[in-house]
Amino acid sequence: MTTEYIKIRNHINGEWLTDQNGQYEPLKNPSTGAIIGEVPMSSQETSQQAVAAAAEAFPAWSATPLPKRMNYIFDMQQAMRDNLEELAQSIAIDQAKHIAEARGEVGRVIEILQMACSIPALIQGETVQGIANNINGRLIKAPLGVFCGVAPFNFPALVFGWFVPFAIGTGNTFVYKPSTESPLFMQKMMQLLIDIGLPKGVVNIVHGDRTTVEAWYDDENVTGVCLVGSTPTAHAIAEGCGRNGKKTMLLGGAKNFMVAMEDAPMDLMIDNVLMSGYGSAGQRCLAVSNIAVVPEIYDEFVERLLEASKKVTVGDAMDPDVFMGPVISANAKSRIEKYIEIGQNEGANLALDGRNPNIPDANKDGYFVGPTVFTEVTPCMQIAREEIFGPVLNIMKVGCINGALRMIKNHEMGNGAVIFTQNTFYTEKFINEADVGMVGVNVGICAPHPYLPFGGIKGSLVGNNKVQGKDAIDFFTQNKVATVRVVDPNAGKTTSAAKTDSSVRSCVAN
Ligand code: NAD
């Protein structure tokens, strides 16, 4: 693990740039609170410079033969395999994601790259022969230009995988803004892209805050902006991009339900609640948050969950023996603690209080919140409605599956929901009726495999576009349609039949 002071840099037009406007924010290790480096807060000019570099690279890159573009995606995947440990450590250092989970995140991106290697099969167009005499119609999935991407702090590698391989594999160029709280992965990843020989300007990195992003809204070189982040940020970007009709792919926040039916496999469910609720210290968009339990198993579930939660070890993200690392920042810690206070004030029963968890002395200045469990929660409480984004579980009693489905429907977020049951009627009903974008059965985290799209509905997705799978190909391409009249060169003029064919006239007029 590196102990050197980390100087995060922008990467524009093939060059690492250390200082453009001299503004830096400290980069901290959330496990210790120590300052470990600095991140540039790029100006709007720097952000536009990155877009200009991507725009300059676009003509040559989009004209690069598809197999050659694919070679870069294959090489990117191999480079990630070869450097998996270093990439995982980069995530464990600044985001303080537990090292085992960080390895899992990088592994998932490798799978996404496998999916991106299917671009040649997925980007194929369509042809309709003979729409009129000597006239054929053809649909081409064409690249669009420069896309920009904005990442949240909690999945620095995954979000790179959702955006960059699909954008550049389909022939676009890219400007990427990592979160200032977890920029190190992209620094390492960009170096790998350079090492595999990716032409300059195809991928550019700018670090910074909202100012860096706002520079793109009126930049005529920007075709579209993608975000994975909170719902207010998704709305801000939708508004900015709407002004000039730019494309957007905006994944927002979440508040996920788990439903426990009377025949739930209890051991499996408890294991999954721990992984889903406390993994990444609850900072996942698919983390379980509200758990609706039927009366038949409510008491047993609460007892088993509390017993298991008390055994969850909390400590440094680099310590393989702890289960849960810190939350991202001092601000996040105090926001979560505030929600614990709110829950108490609105009448929920604080059955396990994660404030002031037991942590090693070396981590006393880190940002730790331990497993927290509220029971007797009702759907209208603030802790049940709002995204806490920490290791806090709300247990609610629900009479039957219809009641659980109603709670899910009435919630303003709609990312994921899972059910634990062995009954096929419940399973099918839940899959059909749960009002969310991603459903799971007997799994704690219902993250779709990269071959399928990932994204929620309602407040969890602004607009319609989701990441990965075929949806990614559709987002990063335009359906360009060509109408082609075939003229016989020997005739030297169009045939008289074609001139008089009324279907040709209507086709051309339209
Ligand atoms: P955030 O919204 O605070 O920040 C996300 C990114 O947007 C950062 O890079 C930030 O610099 C930038 N940003 C912030 N405000 C902006 C603005 N007004 N205009 C333009 N850019 C702005 O989110 P976060 O705290 O980094 O991440 C956690 C959030 O992300 C949670 O809400 C979580 O649910 C969500 N998330 C969602 C998914 C999903 O798949 N739906 C996945 C991961 C995270």
Structural descriptors:
single chain, 510 residues, alpha/beta, Aldehyde Dehydrogenase, Chain A, domain 1, Aldehyde Dehydrogenase, Chain A, domain 2, seven-stranded mixed sheet, 18 helices, 23 strands, 21% strand, binds nicotinamide-adenine-dinucleotide
Summed over residues and divided by their number, the pLDDT gives a mean of: 95
Number of strands: 23
CATH topology of the largest domain: Aldehyde Dehydrogenase, Chain A, domain 1
Unreliable residue stretches:
none
Number of H- or I-type helical stretches: 18
Strand order of the largest sheet: 15-16-17-14-13-19-20
Morphology call: globular
Largest sheet at a glance? 7 strands, mixed
Share of residues in strands:
15-25%
CATH homologous superfamily name of the largest domain?
Aldehyde Dehydrogenase, Chain A, domain 1
Explain what this protein looks like in three dimensions:
With 510 residues, the chain is of the alpha/beta class. It has two domains: 6-23 and 36-252 and 460-479, Aldehyde Dehydrogenase, Chain A, domain 1; 256-450, 3-Layer(aba) Sandwich (Aldehyde Dehydrogenase, Chain A, domain 2), CATH 3.40.309.10. Helices cover 40% and strands 21% of the residues. It contains 18 helices and 23 strands. Strand 6 (126-132) and strand 7 (135-143) form a beta hairpin. The protein is globular. Nicotinamide-adenine-dinucleotide is lined by residues 150-155, 177, 179, 209-210, 213, 228-230, 233, 236-237, 251-254, 285, 387, 389, 415, 456, 460.
What is the gist of this entry?
With about 500 residues, this protein is α/β, with parallel strands linked by helices. It has 18 helices and 23 strands.
